[in-house]
Amino acid sequence: MHIQSKGTQTNNIESVNLSRKEVAKLIGISVSKIDQMIRAKTIPTFKIDGRRFFKRDEILEWNSKRASQTTLQVSKAG
Hints:
Elements (H helix, E strand, L loop, with lengths): L3 E2 L2 E2 L7 E2 L1 H8 L3 H10 L5 E3 L2 E5 H22 L1
Helix pairs in contact: 1-2
């Protein structure tokens, strides 16, 4: 998804609504892992005309919380 403004193109990762591939790149995991999370309903997502998208701000917040929880789990295990 590319957004044009005043004759310039923005970076895909700066878009408000991201695709599965863009989310995977943003948070550093595979698209297949994103698909698994969609099926498990563990990642915030929404549909427009049958296509699935992700809000960049929601993904960044979700990923930050997910990373914090992982750190807590590792700390408790150690």
